[in-house]
Each structure stands twice: as C-alpha cells, then as structure tokens.
Amino acid sequence: MSELKNDRFLRALMKQPVDTTPIWIMRQAGRYLPEYREVRAKAGGFMDLCENADLACEVTMQPLERYDLDAAILFSDILTIPDAMGLGLYFAEGEGPKFERPLKTLADVQKIAIPDPEDELRYVMNAVRTIRKELNGKVPLIGFSGSPWTLATYMVEGGTTKDFGKVKGMMFSNPQAMHLLLDKLAQSVTSYLNAQIAAGAQAVMVFDTWGGVLSDEKYEEFSLRYMQQIVSGLTREADGRKVPVTLFTKGGGRWLEKMAATGCDALGLDWTQDISQARQRVGDAVALQGNMDPSVLYAEPEVIKSEAKKVLDGFGEGPGHIFNLGHGIHQHIDPDKVNVLVDSVHEYGKTS
Ligand code: 1CP
To answer: How many Cα neighbours within 13 Å face the side chain of 289?
Structure first.
C-alpha cells in the first residue's frame, strides 16, 4: 500500500501533534454537490451508486477534488446491514429510506442472520478497495457503520420516524426481542467494520444518530452497551498503524464520559455541546471531532470564518481536535461556502 501523504487526521485522532487542525465534513459527498446529483441521476438510484465500486469511488473523490479535505469517507450508507439481513431496503422518492419487511415480533428477530461482509456486503468491501487504490495515499479513508440502536430504529419503524413509537414500544414491552436484535446487530457491525479495515479503511466511525432520544438509563442499556461490544471487538491496528475508532451519538452530550470509557479513540460532538466544556470533561481520554452548526454554512463568508474560529478557540491549544460540522451538511448549501470553511480552519488552525 502507498505511503500516506497527509496523516493529520489520523495523528489528531491519536492526539499527536499536527501542523494545523484537520477537517472533513459529515456527508461531504452528497446532494449539495451538482456533480453528485449528476452521477446519481445517471446511476438510477442511490443503492445503484453504493453497489457499483467505480461509481461509489467517483462520488467519494468528488469533494476531495473541490476542497482541501484531510480525510475521505467511504460512500455507502448505514442501512446496508439491515438490507443484507433481508429487510428489503428501498428509497421512496422524497421520503428517505424504507424497509419492505420491518421487524415486528421476537420471531422476526430470531429469523434474521448475521451477514457475511465478504458475501452479501462484498460490494461495500469492493468499494473500499477501489477507493484506497484511487486515493493512492492522498488522505486516509474512513469506514463507518450505524450503531446497533440506530439501525434498530429503522428496522423496527420501517423507515424514518419522529416519535420512535414502534422501536421504543418494542424496547419497553419486549426487551428480550430488542436485546436479541441489538446483539445480532453488534456482531454484524463488528465483523462489517473489521472487514472494512481489512479491505483498507484506516479509521472507523460509528454513527449513533438516534441514541439521543433515549433516557440515561435506556441509553446505557440499549445503545452504549452495544457500542462498547463493538469497540471491544474491533481490529485496532493494520499495516503497522493504529486504526482509530470514533463514536458519535447525536444529542449525546450528557454521556461523554461514559462514551469515552468504552475505550474508543475519539468522540464526535454535535453543535449543541460546548466543545471547551466537552474537552474539560473528557479531553485527556479521547480526541474530539466537531462541532460547528451545519446551518452556519447558510451565512456569509465572514460569519463562517468567525464561527469556525469560535470552535477552534473553544477547543483551544494542543492536539486532539478534528474539525467537522455537528451533523451532516445540508442539501441546499452553496458548495463554494465549503471552501471558505476548509481554508479558514487550516489557516486559523495553525495557531491554535
Ligand atoms: O438521495 C440520495 O442521493 C441519497 C441521500 C443519501 C446519501 C448521500 C443517503 C440516504 N445516504 C447517503 C450517504 C451516506 N449516509 C454517507 C456517505 C458518506 C459521506 O458522509 O459523505 C454516510 C456516512 C451516511 C450515514 C447515514 N445514513 C446516517 C448516519 C449519519 C447521519 O447523517 O446521521 C443515517 C442516519 C443514514 C440513513 C439515511 N440514508 C439516507 C438518508 C437520507 C438517511 C437519513 C434518513 C433519516 O433522516 O432518517
């Protein structure tokens, strides 16, 4: 494998000194980019993009051609695992992801099997291998998965939800079914991420987008415990380098210490958390990734620069910060605004 030319991102995740703060952006390949919309229209559907290694590679590279980003992220989706479990993922136009066969009962959960990442999910591993080759050491490649709880919400609800009625209903009325599902998902995520690492992913991130809707007690029992199981089962070194793992619970500000205690290397922060307070709470244990409000990118360049500076100043001096938005970039952002952000983080990050 080729030598890594820019390892700022990996160094920051390991809390090693860097020349300036590294930056990447959640959902950096996506609908705000006209070149993405073009390839997606040609491919037919979103899953057609994910299942074709050359197209997945092309859209992964698109933001790196426009911006001086310090990491690439595999173009795929968290819902590949439930799809491989046989739930029948489809995208209804304008409605987001849906499943043909959501899980309703313990018997449904008992029937699902743990997918073999080099079989049902081989298309993802092929994309990882193709992207690593194409990157040729330019920047590191991030692999990812959803957290068991977050995947379970889609699998039980059958799609996006606002009230989490069905999945919380199962959690309260049939905890045995929920725990069996979460355990199967934790095993699946662990082997899926380890396969991505074997295929060439140089860091991994677990997206717990919906952990924040749980109470303290339920978060520990139904989300954190299974992320802990994953962290404990991951390959932590490959090709003579550490493979850092980042946990991101959106709305998880209450639980940073507990998340850090899983043994992960970094925590993703959403924008509702104060990064300097977060650092005081956990800074020695883990690196921090985040956390500018994605909506700042609707504002003029001067506002973007001053808000980015606030995040950098908030983290303060010393290593262990990866700049990012507090959640994915919005669809209607002007792509030129991203250049303003990336360049100002690199410029101002030199002194902080
Ligand atoms: O119409 C389209 O072109 C599809 C839109 C789209 C895209 C671009 C979806 C469907 N997924 C993706 C890519 C994607 N999803 C990436 C690619 C890499 C990158 O960041 O550039 C990643 C990391 C994800 C992860 C993902 N998918 C999450 C976790 C992160 C987060 O944003 O909270 C979640 C919750 C999903 C589910 C999903 N898939 C797609 C959509 C629109 C959604 C969200 C649905 C919802 O809000 O419930």
So the answer is: 33
Query: pLDDT tens digits, residue range 10-62?
Result: 999 999 999 999 999 999 999 999 999 999 999 998 999 999 999 999 999 99
Fold exhibited by the domain 8-348: TIM Barrel (3.20.20)
From 38, 51, 77, give the residue whose CB has the most ligand 1 atoms within 8 Å, as the site to mutate: 77
Q: What are the CA-CA distances from residue 134 to residues 24, 129, 181, 192, 265 (Å)?
A: 18, 9, 37, 22, 27
Residue ID of nearest Cα to ligand 1 atom 11: 77
Rounded to the nearest angstrom, the distance between the alpha carbon of 75 and the centre of ligand 1 is 9
Contact between 311 and 291 under an 8 Å Cβ cutoff? The reply is yes
Between CA 2 and CA 35 the distance in angstroms is 28
55-75 pLDDT, tens digit per residue, is 999 999 999 999 999 999 999
For residue 31, indicate whether it is catalytic: yes
For 130, phi then psi, to 5°, come to -65, -45
